C-alpha cells in the first residue's frame, strides 16, 4: 500500500443525529460538505478508515469487504427518505489486513475480520457529505465499550503509520451523547456546555492524559456520556495522530439542547515511525 500521499492529520467528527443526512438546516452538514476542500486541499486519500461509535465489539474488528458496501440503516422512527439513502463505497480488504497486522504487531492479541458487515450510519452519513461520489475504498474498525479511553488511545497509536500510506483516519462519534437529555430547547444544557468546554480546553492544550481519563477528570462525564462508545472514536483519532499532536476545533454547533457537533483535527509535525 505504498503511496506518495502522506497525511499528517486525523479527524474526529461528531456525527450527531442521523437527520444530518437530509436536514439542510444543520450547520454540521455544510461543514462536512466543505471538508475536503478546506482540510485536504482536494487531495484524494487512497482509502478511508472509519472508527464508528455504532460498531461495538468485545475485540477489535475490521470489516473486510470485497466489492461495494451495503448501507446499514441502523436507526428507527426517522423520515422514510433516510432509509432509501445508499452509500455504496468500495470495500478496502487490503486496508483491513493492514489494520489487523499493525494492531497485532502492537500487542493487540485478537483482531477479527468481518467479511459481511456494511457501513453503519456513523460512517456513511458523514462520508456521503464529505465524499458523495462514494469512490474511495472504506474500512471500518469497531470500538470496545468494555475497555477505557487509554486502551482506545493506544489502539490509535498502533494505527498512526497508516497515514504515511495515504489512509484518512476518521473517528466518528459525538462530543456529547445523552439521548435521554435531548429537547427542543434553543438553550444548551449547562452540563453539556461544561463538558464540551472542558473537552475543548483539554484537547487544545494537549492534556491528552486527562482526555484519556475523561470519565474521572471531566465535569458531568457520566451525564454527557452515559455509555462511552460515542467518545472512544475520539481517543482512537487522537492516538493515531502520532507524536507532538496539536488539536484544533474545526467545527462547532449544537442541536436539540444538548447534542454537540464539535469536531477536531489532530496534526503531528513528526513523521510516523
From TrEMBL:
Q: Which InterPro entries match?
A: Extradiol_dOase_DODA, Xdiol_dOase_suB
Carries keyword Oxidoreductase?
A: yes
The signal sequence is none
Please report which protein family the annotation says this sequence is part of.
Answer: Belongs to the DODA-type extradiol aromatic ring-opening dioxygenase family.
User: Does this UniProt record's set of keywords contain Oxidoreductase?
Assistant: yes
Give cofactor(s), names only. Zn(2+)
User: Record's superkingdom?
Assistant: Eukaryota
Q: What is this protein called?
A: Extradiol ring-cleavage dioxygenase class III enzyme subunit B domain-containing protein
| Every Extradiol ring-cleavage dioxygenase class III enzyme subunit B domain range | 10-266
**Keyword set, alphabetical order:** Dioxygenase, Metal-binding, Oxidoreductase, Zinc
Amino acid at each position: 500500500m505504498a503511496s506518495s500521499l502522506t497525511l499528517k492529520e486525523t479527524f474526529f467528527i461528531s456525527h450527531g443525529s442521523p437527520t444530518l443526512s437530509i436536514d439542510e438546516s444543520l450547520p454540521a452538514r455544510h461543514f462536512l460538505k466543505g471538508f475536503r476542500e478546506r482540510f485536504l486541499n482536494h487531495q484524494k486519500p487512497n482509502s478511508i478508515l472509519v472508527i464508528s461509535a455504532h460498531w461495538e465489539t468485545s475485540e477489535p474488528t475490521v470489516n473486510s469487504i470485497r466489492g461495494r458496501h451495503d448501507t446499514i440503516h441502523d436507526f428507527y422512527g426517522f423520515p422514510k427518505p433516510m432509509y432509501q439513502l445508499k452509500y455504496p463505497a468500495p470495500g478496502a480488504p487490503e486496508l483491513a489486513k493492514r489494520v489487523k497486522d499493525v494492531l497485532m504487531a502492537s500487542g493487540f492479541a485478537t483482531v477479527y475480520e468481518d467479511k459481511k458487515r456494511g457501513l453503519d450510519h456513523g460512517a456513511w452519513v458523514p462520508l456521503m457529505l464529505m465524499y458523495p461520489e462514494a469512490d474511495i475504498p472504506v474500512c471500518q474498525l469497531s470500538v470496545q465499550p468494555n475497555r477505557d479511553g487509554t486502551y482506545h488511545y493506544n489502539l490509535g497509536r498502533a494505527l498512526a503509520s497508516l497515514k504515511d500510506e495515504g489512509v484518512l483516519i476518521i473517528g466518528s462519534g459525538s462530543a456529547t451523547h445523552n439521548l435521554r437529555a435531548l429537547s427542543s430547547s434553543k438553550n444548551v444544557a449547562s452540563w453539556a456546555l461544561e463538558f464540551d468546554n472542558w473537552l475543548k480546553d483539554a484537547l487544545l492544550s494537549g492534556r491528552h492524559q486527562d482526555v484519556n481519563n475523561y470519565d474521572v477528570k471531566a465535569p458531568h462525564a457520566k451525564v454527557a456520556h452515559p455509555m462511552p462508545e460515542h467518545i472512544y472514536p475520539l481517543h482512537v483519532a487522537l492516538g493515531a495522530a502520532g507524536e507532538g499532536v496539536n488539536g484544533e476545533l474545526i467545527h462547532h454547533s449544537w442541536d436539540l439542547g444538548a447534542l454537540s457537533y464539535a469536531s477536531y483535527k489532530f496534526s503531528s509535525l513528526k513523521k510516523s515511525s
